[in-house]
Design goal:
By secondary structure, this protein is an all-alpha fold. Among the domains are: 83-169 and 181-262, no CATH class; 270-305. Helix content is 80%, strand content 0%. The protein has helices at residues 2-78, 84-93, 113-132, 139-169, 178-192, 197-212, 219-262, 271-308. Keywords: Coiled coil. Residues 162-183, 259-312 are annotated as: Disordered. Residues 14-55 form a coiled coil.
Length: 312
């Protein structure tokens, strides 16, 4: 009987040891799994950090290239060999040499197809530099984006003109349905020409409503209007930006004149700036005189009270 009890106890101890060993094994496996998960998380974190650092370096590199592009543009302007994109960049700076008469699309007026293609490449490069440098919003980005659409329109016009000339040389003018399509194109352009940005946006909403509303509508005509709206909105936006830049340039010129007028040397002073400075000086003197007079009155009042007060 005692032997059986001893055997049972030994079996229980053995089972407990096995259970403990199994428990230790599970804990070790759990730690190894946690360590593996931690290592994987750290590796992922390091990869993400490396990607962020790389993106930061890429952005810095793009910013450097954008700065270098501005420097090269300024050099070409100074040396009298400016490209159309340099003229646009100078206008966009809205500095003291802003040309109020030259609007953005004017730089393309006399360009050949090859020159317009070069301009398109330069404008697209400006956009890519800005977006690479993290400057994908703002007036400057909007300017280059709108300019790209207008350059594409100029290319279309030049190519159509060249094609018409080729057809003319072959004696094939006015064949097929080209005339009807051209009539629609001219009608649409006359409808959109000269409208403001807000008016074009309102018209765009009306066109979309017309096309999606169903009913008996002239789909070809309204689709053409919708397609042409992108260009006319870009052209109107360039007009708006030109007006903003003109105002900024006027402000810059006014500040420069005031600074020149306030300087002790460097040429004749601006009369308006001199008058403003003199008026400010007189106002300061008047304030100082008023303050001195008020202080004197207060001192006299205190002296009067001291004389009239009874002795202790």
């Amino acid at each position: 009987m005692a032997d059986e009890l001893t055997l049972d106890a030994e079996r229980r101890r053995h089972a407990e040891r096995l259970a403990e060993i199994e428990k230790v094994k599970r804990r070790r496996e759990e730690r190894e799994r946690e360590r593996a998960e931690h290592d994987a998380e750290m590796e992922q974190l390091m990869r993400e950090r490396a990607m962020l650092e790389f993106a930061g370096w890429e952005q810095k590199e793009d910013e450097f290239h954008a700065q270098q592009a501005r420097v090269r543009s300024e050099i070409r302007l100074a040396e009298g060999r400016a490209k159309p994109v340099d003229v646009l960049a100078k206008q966009l700076a809205a500095g003291l040499d802003f040309d109020f008469q030259t609007k953005p699309r004017d730089v393309m007026a006399e360009l050949t197809e090859r020159e317009v293609l070069d301009l398109r490449e330069d404008v697209a490069h400006q956009l890519a530099l800005m977006e690479g440098a993290g400057q994908s919003v703002g007036m400057e980005h909007d300017f280059w984006g709108a300019m790209l659409l207008c350059v594409d329109e100029k290319l279309r016009v030049l190519r159509e003109k060249a094609e018409e000339e080729r057809r003319g040389r072959r004696g094939k003018q006015g064949q097929g349905a080209v005339g009807g399509s051209d009539d629609i194109h001219a009608e649409v352009d006359s409808l959109l020409e000269g409208k403001s940005t807000s008016a074009l946006e309102e018209m765009e909403a009306q066109v979309v409503a017309t096309l999606t509303g169903g009913g008996a509508v002239e789909v070809e005509y309204w689709e053409r209007v919708k397609a042409r709206l992108a260009y006319f909105k870009a052209a109107a936006l360039l007009e708006d930006i030109h007006a903003v830049l003109a105002d900024k340039s006027v402000d810059a010129q006014r500040r420069a004149m005031m600074e020149e007028g306030a300087a002790p040397v460097g040429g004749p002073r601006d009369p308006a700036a001199a008058a403003a400075e003199e008026e400010e000086r007189l106002a300061r003197e008047a304030e100082r005189a008023d303050a001195e007079e008020a202080a004197a009155r207060q001192e006299a009042f205190r002296a009067t009270r001291a004389i009239g007060s009874p002795s202790p």
